[in-house]
Specification:
single chain; 296 residues; eight-stranded mixed sheet; two-stranded antiparallel sheet; 8 helices
């Protein structure tokens, strides 16, 4: 199934005005492979012929520079009308920006919420993204200031939640669903991706071993009334590919690459439904007096 890249999902007011679809990738907890999923999803989208950007908003643990072999690369800064404009770095056909480009990779960031939120806003406001079909935003795990800054600054098309099959991860994924569905935020949820769904040995690619439990993601998606976009297998080499700066989705006919292609097709379906049925997303005005989470 193809997706109409030229169908705008929202009318941007200020930031990323020429981006048609802004997709946030979130998780309820760390350690579920969210950043790996975000990076490979961006590449899989680009492989369809779409123009794609990737923003690493995981302020306290930026990993996109390592995953894209850009650890020692700095973006070009140009002057325009007395203002400094950040030029995203292009790699593997994707425009990339990360807070990791501007800080020492060995230095811990001891930023309070407002400082971290301000740094994130610069990646939207002061960068020349141009016209793109998709921008994928890798959010920090959990819920907090960065998430609120995102929905207050951008008209997010929708959110993809990443979890693993273990019950502890699923429990935290429920909290992420609750945050984005809450009356105070109300950002559409495009679906759930179950990462590390099963282990597949390289020498036995047809075999599936559910070492972390089976169909936890499917049950959670049904419970939350959202789409299960796909199951990403755990295979030998997926960590090495990220550490070596070449996301595994770049490999043709690899089981993980094929899994992300399926995720991308399912995401296109959900985007078409979302952009047809729902009104364009507005930037969120946080209302602290709004009722709590609404449950699907």
């Amino acid at each position: 199934m193809s997706h109409q890249h030229n169908q705008p999902a929202q009318e941007q007011e200020k930031f990323l005005p020429d981006v048609k679809n802004i997709i946030a990738v979130a998780s309820g907890k760390g350690g579920v492979g969210k950043s790996t999923v975000a990076a490979n999803l961006a590449i899989s989208l680009a492989k369809t012929g779409a123009s794609v950007g990737l923003i690493d908003a995981d302020i306290y643990g930026p990993s996109v520079p390592l995953m894209f072999d850009l650890v020692d690369v700095k973006p070009h800064i140009k002057e325009e009308n007395g203002k400094q404009i950040i030029m995203p770095i292009e790699k593997y056909g994707i425009k990339v920006l990360s807070i990791g480009f501007f800080v020492d990779p060995n230095q811990a960031l001891l930023w309070r919420g407002p400082m971290a939120s301000g740094a994130l806003t610069q990646l939207f406001r002061d960068a020349e993204w141009g016209a793109l079909d998709y921008v994928v935003i890798d959010l920090p795990p959990g819920t907090g200031d960065i998430h609120l800054t995102l929905v207050q600054s951008l008209a997010v098309t929708g959110v993809v939640i990443v979890s693993t099959p273990q019950e502890v991860a699923l429990a935290d994924a429920r909290k992420a669903f609750g945050m984005f569905k809450s009356n105070a935020i109300k950002v559409p949820i495009l679906g759930l991706i179950e990462n590390m769904a099963y282990f597949t040995p390289e020498e036995l690619p047809e075999n599936k071993y559910y070492i972390f439990g089976k169909e936890g993601g499917k049950r959670l998606a049904e419970e939350a009334h959202v789409a299960l976009l796909g199951e990403i297998p755990l295979v030998q080499g997926i960590c090495d590919s990220g550490d070596n700066g070449k996301p595994i989705s770049l490999e043709e006919n690899h089981p993980v690459s094929k899994a992300f292609e399926e995720v991308t097709e399912n995401l296109f379906t959900q985007l078409n439904i979302r952009n047809t049925v729902l009104r364009p997303t507005k930037k969120v005005e946080i209302n602290p007096d709004a009722e709590g989470c609404e449950h699907a």
